[in-house]
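Margin note from the TA: students keep mixing up input and output lines. Inputs are the sequences; the output is the structure of the whole complex. Example:
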Amino acid sequence: MYRYDQYDQEIVDARVEEFRDQARRRLAGEMTEDQFKPLRLMNGLYLQLHAYMLRVAVPYGTMSGKQMRMLGHIARKYDKGYGHFTTRQNIQYNWIKLEDAADILADLATVEMHAIQTSGNCIRNISSDQYAGAAADEVADPRPWAELLRQWSTFHPEFTYLPRKFKIAVIASEEDRAAMRLHDIGIELVKRDGKVGAKFFVGGGMGRTPMIAPEIRDFVPEEELISYAEACLRVYNRYGRRDNKYKARIKILVHELGADEYRRQVEEEFAHMKTLGIDPPVAELDRIRAYFADPAYETGLPEAVDRSDPDFALWLDQNVVAHKQPGYAIVNISLKPTGGIPGDASAEQIELIADLTERYSMDEVRVTHAQNIVLPYVKKADLYTLWQQLDEAGLGASNLDLITDMIACPGLDYCSLANARSIPVAQKIAQRFADPQRQRDLGELKLKISGCINACGHHHAGHIGILGVDRKGVENYQLLLGGSGAEDASIGTITGPGFGEDGIVDAIEKVTDLYVSERQEGERFLDTYRRLGMKPFKEAIYG
Amino acid sequence: MAEFLSFRTGDAAQEPAVTVEAFTGQSNATAVRIEPGEDARDLLPHLDRLSLVEVNFPAFGDGRGYSAARILREAGYEGELRAVGDVLVDQLPAMRRCGFDVFKPNHPLDDAVVKTSLERYDNVYQKTIDGRTPVWAKRHPEKIDG
Amino acid sequence: MILLTGNDLASGDVIWWTGSGWSRHVGEAVDAGSEADAILARESAARNVNAGYSVEAEATASGPLPLHIKERIRASGPTVRTDLAINADIPIVKA
């Protein structure tokens, strides 16, 4: 994985001191909160419902064991002993003191980490496929491209006060495990004439106006990646709407101009950008690529796994996926135990994962956009021992991609923007569907919950989505069906009138019951819904 | 406290800036003021007679002026490029990188903070028109012309 | 009644106006009445409170209780982590 050189380290160290100085000026009254707010946000520090919240960047979701361990240390020393992994592959802490923030950043900098641009109207953390480098179906590892973009976007002088936040995802497989087309820019690496280049999708997103990004360019060669990205951003910075916060994302610009006109303007700007010499030489991408070379795989490893422990066998079938390298497997650690808080992990769990990363996964660990953890390089021979240790620590849930593997935003329990609580609803659903046999029978079912229209819980992209709203001071939940964040991306449709906290769980059960009775051979919930349409589901719910 | 900051040699331009509309409609003005919604490229045919471009920031969070500045510098404009309005000390480094060389903020800036802020980063990741060598060029000196 | 709330600038803690200062316990809050704006302006300028605002509340036997669920959760703590609650006995959902 990538390691900082002296330049990367100097930039992150300077950032720590800059923020220390900014926080000092705020505490001393040299700045108003209005002036300080964009500065703290650009360093991931929010003022949330109960306290300051710090979001730490995990670039493209990849970390070493040492970095993971630092996240546990921060949870223990500066927070209340836990952290929350987010849908952008980051981690956030809910109980941070402003007076500690610079010290936390200094601790992070010792392991080549930071909180730069994890909030604010700037280019955010670049996300990617959690199986990058280990998946058999990728044309190249997307992470070197993501790292090149990370460096380009860090303190980009022109794009620090954009109309609104800006999220970029990079993938390299046809199977989309990163909700790529629901990003402001989604990049899919593709091969043409033996060369890898970037296919650009621009103007996707969720929020109150969900959109699937249209393709804007089918191939950007690697030596022009930065020029093209810069052109995309400049058109947005100049013409994105600034009169209305809710219409300020690039998806609205692309939608209002039309993809063709946006493309034309970008091409014009791109032609200009290419004359400026702003692209790093290919040698720079090659330098970064070298860090992502395959780890030192062992050969001749056994393929067979002893399945005699039935609980282990369940986990093996549900949470372990095929690796490109013989003798190895990709392990998903679910952060969705029944009754737990989706995405939360205690300091002890984080530290255990750090140990297991070093011992069993060639010192690499990933965070997924579905708020789980991946150990990407595990020998099949180690799977049983690994599972025993996970299970003992409450990390052995065998529910990857099942109905209880929910994405849920923090909701009104933590978030000052939320209208309703998300986590208690997630917990009630998990309890209703706790029977493992029933979950497996329902098969792949992506359930996603947001506590407000901003859609941090990706409800538009859930096979089943839930949106919490405030109805005259009372929490109310709308149900959506038919969304997908994968390569078959689609936006869910609201079923009808909303429900109370218990009613929404009943409604979901009616929907899944209908699926079970109507499904054809091999159909997932989403397939049955697409075949039948909304009508029968609506009748089942409200009839 | 600084109410006017210049990184140019020589005196600042004195002529009052006119609007873009007035400027493109009259032949003798040499100073113009760009508002956030206006297209800096409208000025490109007239760069040779311009000695001052003021870019107004009515609110610090409106970043269109950063693009306006770079567009002018990328087109070869070498005259005074002045950021006016709601300009905050923590924004100076990015503004300098985009080509601004004079600042006239609504609220005076603390000189010591200005100095620290501008000297903070020895390294930058992007190539812009400010002439600083980006990190990638430092990493690959043999690959970079000139 | 009108309560004043916000966060402590340095620690971020949720705090409530007590008439003479700020407390983490909503039970110690007092009605700011018509002075709300003046108190907020003065206390914000002195950095005794950050991002302060006023909320509607009702008087109950156990002390003042904000009307809106969001403010009740702020006063209590996350409902899914009652082990971390500061005022765990606050009713979150209106009876």
